[in-house]
User: Fold these one by one.
Assistant:
Number 1:
Amino acid sequence: MINRIKIGAGSCGLAAGADEIIEIFKSIAPDQKLVEVGCIGHCYAEPLIEVETDNGSIFYGNIEPKEESVKNILALGKEGRFVPDESRTSKELLKVTKLAGKINPIDIEEYENNGGYSALKKAFENTRAQIVEEVKKSGLRGRGGAGFPTGLKWSFLAAQTSEDKYLICNADEGDPGAFMDRSMMESVPHQVLEGMLIGAYATGATEIFIYCRAEYPLAIKNLGIAAKQIAEKGYDIVDGRKIEITIKEGAGAFVCGEETAMINSLEGKRGTPRFRPPFPTDSGFKGKPSLINNVETFANIALVIREGGEVYARTGTEGSKGTKLFALAGDIKNPGLVEVPMGITIGEIVYDIGGAEKGSVKAVQIGGPSGGCIPADKFDISVDYDSLKSLGAIMGSGGLIAVGKNRCMVETARYFLDFTAKESCGKCTFCRVGTKRMLETLEKITKGKGTLKDVEFLEDIGPKIIKGSLCALGGSAPNPVISTLRFFKNEYLEHVLEGKCSALQCNALVELKIIPEKCIKCKLCIRSCPVNAISDDFIVDNDLCTRCNSCIEVCPKNAVERVPAGGAK
Amino acid sequence: MKTVTEIIGKMNKDSSYIIRALQAVQQEEGYVSDKAISAIATHFDVSEAEIEGVLSFYAQFKRTKPGKYVVAVCDGTACHIKGASLIENWVVDELGIKDGETDENGTFSLELVACLGCCSLAPVISVNGKVYGKLNRKELIKILKKYQKGEIQ
């Protein structure tokens, strides 16, 4: 007997085709109870459906948008059932994401029936100081990147006596390759808001702001609905005061993830950072004391209060408590949103959870454009704030990208510098000009025109940019270059000394060749070439060729190959 | 279509609403025109230069009218690793426009964006907000052709 059917309809579920499947359900089984839930975490298996029956749940993954597949699900057919790998489930620890993808995101009662808002009620039974103390005891550190102790930050705002105090949620997830915060806001918006209301109580904040990327329309929508439901239930009455919840949309500037830049942006100005002190808890939004925490941090708060700081702190390592969400993507079999206990190793995440084959990944990039790479031979490192720092990487917000064997690390570093150079707000000379110079130098190297002097220049300028920049954007922008230079200097040297890119990724150092023994002369390559670089006798003119890979993509026999420069003849 | 004054007329006049006003105008008109800047400046009682300064800071705002279909090629880390630059090249070849450009008929605009947040489906593009994932050349061309022929509106 089917009780109800849940379909993963977060942004990536929808992108994978969940909306088409919903339409089919509505047309052939209009009476069937169908709930659109958020992210179930197994993004690689989207579109994903959970069927709740009297005898437990059955999952179906990678569902084709066809009537047959929907009928198969309605009949509880054996076909297409999805069972996550044991190697993944045994390593994961679902605490913060326990309800994500399990409950209807915009049904406050379902959230309440699953323990929702019990932490807020419990908080009200304690004094404000006790709550701050509990958060301190939990050892929770900011999940936005820098890892500042959350309880300590809260105590700063609680100590302020100003009449207006603001609590701000940083939901400007700008790190390209990270989607933890989006998933949480889409899937369990009430959990994020419950954490914020507890924060407002503990710190005496009078108003709540959520600064969310405009690129996350579903997150904004769900948060808005949740905020309305909160007002209807009266959960926003804290200490007899009504707490206003305002959702502000960011406008596409990475630097606004920086506290002081975000405050400027909230005030309707250009989002440039300013010198600290004064810290926002002394002078923030409109000059009033303000506290900024990230989405994931707030999502942890209800957990801390419900189970108590001491119990919470039992998970994790000495200096890093609890669990961490990672947006796992790149060259692995099973990308998705994962939640793991602090102290797990990178190897366990990449191989056991991500399902990457041993030897297929040469590094991970952790912390996005502000982070660093960790080479495969160091994958036994523990994932916690301090161990990662010792390797020149950072926890960051949680983007974790696996870099496969066939990727060039110089090109990867160039990509990140291209991003930060564009996103530098221009206030500090070292960041504005420095990142640009670094980018130009990296471009020179990937184009095969670099020299040893360029590599030395990169080594020299990186630490100077870090020193000469006001905020964390410039202060971390050189990290991808510094860390690839530390672990993959051989790749830089190979580019500048031998004119070679052994990953065959840097176009200027690569030629295309059609292998005559494999070619069946079907002419698909000739027809697909946008610059007519392939002759009638199947020879590639590498002077004309733009290395767009069109021919490689269309060739049914894999007869077109990328070879080192000079190798096509 | 609503006029700029109609769009922002009832909005709070506190300057912290400037970005929201710009977003509201762009949502309605697709871009922020000179006329809109002037109206917003009057509404908030600040100079036009100040409005221009704010909008030029943020990547979201456009000063020229976009095409009917805005093709956004995601160049986030996961998509980049999975070949976003190839996707970009193929779109450029197919539509004949580069990043930031709109074609002559006003049908397509192309923009390169930092991350659409669908990393597990990389590489992805979006057309007017609808995301297409796990692309290869064939799939990509098929999708673009559907828009060109008007099979998808």
Note: The first strand of chain A starts at residue 2 and ends at 8.
Number 2:
Amino acid sequence: MSKLLTIALKDLRIAFSDTSALILMLATPFAISLAITFAFGGLGSQGGSGIEEIPVTLVNQDDGLFGELLVETFQSPELADLFAPEMLSSPQEARQRVDADESAAAVIIPAGFSDAVFQELTAGEASAEVEIYANPTRPISVSVVRSITGSVLGRINASYAAGHAAVEGLIASGLLDPQQAGEVAPQIGQRAGEQVFNARGIRVERVQVAGQREEASEFNWAGYFAPSMAIMFLMFTVTSGARTLLAERDNGTLQRIFAAPTRPWQMIGGKVLGTFLIGVLQMTILALATRFLLGVRWGPPEAVAALITAVVFAATGWGVLLAAYARSAGQVEVAGTVISLVFGAAAGNFVPRFNLPAWLQQASYISPNAWGLEGFNSLASGGALVDILPAIQALVIMGAVLFALSLLAYRRQMV
Amino acid sequence: MKVLTIALNDLKMEFSERTTLVFFLLIPLAFTFAIAQGLGGSGGSSGGPDLYPVAVVDEDGSMLAEQVIQALQKTPDLQAALLSADQAAAALEDGEALAVLTLPAGFGEALAKGQDVPVRLERASDELEARAAAQAVENGLARVDSAVQAALAAVNERRRFQDFPDAEAEQAFFDDRLDAALRTLQNPPASLRMTQSESAAGSADEIDAATQASSGQLVTWTLFTLLGVSDMFVGERLLGTLRRLIASPTRPSTVLLGKLVGRLAMGWTQMAILILFGGLVLGVNWGRSPLALLVVAVSFSLAAVAFGVMIGAFAKTRGQAGGLTTLCALLLAALGGAWWPLEITPQVYQALVKALPTTWAMFGFNEVILRGADVRAVLPEAGMMLVFAALFFIISIPRLRFA
């Protein structure tokens, strides 16, 4: 047993004194987490998307109420953080601002826009169309501008529908002479429209399946990507550990050790234990560094520790399986990198997991990445040890099955 | 001539290893495909189901609640089933319903008075389909809400002229006006038209996820290849082959140039394959000007290979060179906007990352691909990348050791 530990600790020491290994194990995942925190949350905060002060150009050629309403909405104090609006008088100039990438979109309200809406009440012919001239290099900002414009137009249309329903209803009831409708319809329409405008109406409270209000758990980029990067680079570590096993066989050092009074199981067990310990230490350092330097919330320490152990156990299982069936250290290196990247991409280490197609999310449960990521996400959003027990169970079973499959081929491979 | 011989020799050696093909070709293609798929839903260009199955729970039982439900059931992209709370919870759990809308007790009364009417909308998961279903319910509700308010306003106007003879007549009038308002809102007068520059790719109406993903993946993976020149420099230096080459009647500048040309040829080949894959398989529109695309790609590759030489000049071992290549490739790509659009990052971030060549590469590719820019329009971006290339060469070449 002491020989097994000696071998494991020796590998641990070698890994943590090798600069290039440290770059891959710790510096790279930490640096990417740092970049993501910087990009999306601001250092030390748990913020969500950094979208703010979208430059939007407004051109209001309408002299009626609705054009003014649209402009006021973009200039309102409630949206002051979201938009940095500027007013121009020429649509041509506004389009040039967008083409020069100085604006995300130009909202162009045509002359006679309000009249065109009102005219519908009596004539029912004219149409009022607001143009959004979009900057194709800023699709997300454009979609925000579009959504706000759409909601204002929705309110304008609701007002119109109210006026239309009232006038038409009065005519149908015989209370309003169609000949007189042209004179009184605008007043009726305006009154009905105002009532609709001032009604507070249906307000949707979005709830996730767990029951908590959605606003309380806005997507946290840094909280998602810190464990995500740690798991992905853990896979590189364990497959690299597996490579050293075969490299020692290929170099002949394994045979020399076997010639000494060391049993094969002690040697192989020591190297596997070493890989496991390196993985645990790597994940722990990354968790502590991102927690205390970047302010990433990981969750209750005992649950995080349990999940780290389970994830590393399953990941080591994959490494050991590779070493058991590969023909050379070079093969392990290539297959290890491929597996690490494919598992990472499929499980959501590069793009948020919930954005992936459902079939890919299901398929990715073959990887420790998917179970680990879901477990860490659960802990970061307030979960406890009991919530991640299914993930831990799955990871332990995965590791055990992989170790068992590896044992079948080990003797042929190593001796 | 010697330059070409050295370049061809390096290419032959690189491609004689099967592993090169895996990293050079298979992984980049797989990632470009997977990430285009992953972003597809969020961008809105991927198709969802024709009808989103959702459940509605009516805890109110009022006439108004019933009318809201009926109107929701007529909403084009929803398949709304009226269920009890227990049935709805089970349907949500079994995946038979993607979202559950609950109309609480007092819903009808509050709505009729124009008061704040909170309703609960629970979605099955964070997955795209469930989020799209919840959004479809919200859109449907907004239309129904507008129509109900319009019908209530019409009832009030009717009262101003003449009171209703009885409650039944009032209800009949309301029902009729609600139908009329719903019809009006199907083809409303005020509308929105999305436009964009004529030279821009695709439609202004939707985000093309594959196009968004392809340029980012191109930058990420060719960075690995181009920065990989560092490993070659360090490896050959340690093996002594560089020293032997210098000992032959070959000038160091010829050796350096040969190595750079070989690596650039690899990078350009990889770019060409990724561009063809994006265009033919993912339907990416790579812009209107192949020349502009070429100018951006070549200037980016020069900046990247120069960065690789810089790593090669500072790294002492192959392990260090490999580790630094991975670290720098991932970081430069992520920070420069290849993984996420810079528009969603804070202004200070956007200003700071202009100090990276990858940011200018992404600016350039986006100009060409998304805006349909011509060569003249991308000269500033290309110029910046060439400045970076010159800077990296100036820093690294005096420090390069051949022995």
Note: The first strand of chain B starts at residue 52 and ends at 58.
